[in-house]
Q: What sequence folds into this?
């Protein structure tokens, strides 16, 4: 069996691993937030959820939508749409031997932007707070994609 | 050209590759299930789909939603929301030289939980079947994230 | 610090990196398309967006849905549902030492199919253009999954 720990001795890769784990854990928190609002506000998407979690004869009336729940779900979907490209492009970028401090700057900006995006979406803060957070994270990912395609294009 | 097969000689990584391929294939099956219900129940989201697959003069009436189709779509989105973190965190965890049997236990529990989640969503089974399957998969991913951040944090 | 550039000297991996970066950048373009239609058509999902981007006293009336925006969002979600499996399965496939020309054929077909899928969805082209593009990309991913499970199964 080959020892793979050397990959984790690469500092850029370790930094990528840490920031990715943090941003993915943040995204997973959105599921809990959705579940929390669904249970406290009694807003369900499935009849079987009403029956168990919305006790009472008229449970079916809890089969509805709610502004708060929909807001969390939109924030969650936006996370997915932006973290998936970061995951793929960031992994390949980390393996393309970038400068350590440049790489860490990219990762920090992205993770910061996504956390701020979530805060701006859930409070909600007035626009353009959320839009700026979105475009910062977007720009960071594009910057890594550009670096990758410029130096390692192979079609 | 460098030979990369040594990465695939690492047993943890091979196990991760196998379980990931299985759980992603399962997720892809959801697309087929959606297509199946859309075609058999004549429920479409786009006018051009009605025109081709819902033959007849009054095809436009098939531009509607359907409980069954929406249920499959919710299960699919839930898969996405949970399998993406598993993909990222699990990959990094696999490269961080974990104990083989612990790693395989994590992968098996996650894949089992997601398959059971799909079954519980599509039949549907009464709650809390689906909720427990969800939280088992969620906990497995968090456990890998915790292991990763504790041993390899680099910010 | 270990030098990881040798991974990027592997031709299959470099090709995977290039095609993945392209297809993820294409997916990110969908966010811009959604934002473009939301702003030009004044169709918002959040009250705070109306207040800032849909100026006027009766901004609240812009809190609505729109066929064009929903179409882009469906195309975006379909991208997510298909590119995530490609990302995971394709990465593992690339590391399993496949034949270079076979691998590049897979990547090219997938990226071509997804770009054509987006065009067919957004114009929109009559069916079965979009359905064929979808199933081509789907088949490519399944073909890589099959290759991976046949040669490297470890459960």
A:
């Amino acid at each position: 069996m080959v020892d793979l720990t050397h990959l984790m001795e690469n500092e850029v890769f370790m930094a990528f691993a840490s920031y990715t784990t943090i941003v993915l854990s943040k995204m997973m928190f959105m599921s809990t937030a959705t579940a929390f609002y669904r249970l406290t506000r009694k807003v369900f998407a499935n009849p079987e959820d009403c029956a168990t979690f919305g006790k009472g004869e008229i449970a079916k009336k809890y089969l509805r939508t709610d502004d708060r729940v929909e807001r969390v779900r939109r924030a969650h979907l936006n996370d997915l749409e932006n973290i998936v490209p970061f995951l793929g492009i960031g992994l390949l970028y980390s393996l393309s031997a970038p400068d350590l401090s440049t790489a860490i700057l990219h990762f920090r900006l992205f993770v910061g932007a996504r956390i701020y995006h979530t805060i701006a979406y859930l409070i909600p803060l007035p626009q353009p707070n959320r839009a700026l957070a979105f475009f910062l994270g977007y720009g960071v990912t594009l910057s890594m994609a550009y670096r990758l395609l410029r130096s390692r294009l192979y079609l």
Remarks:
- Residues 72 and 122 of chain B are 7 Å apart (CA to CA).
- Chain B has five helices and no strands.
- Chain B touches chain C through 36 residues (CB under 8 Å).
- Chain B has a mean pLDDT of 84.
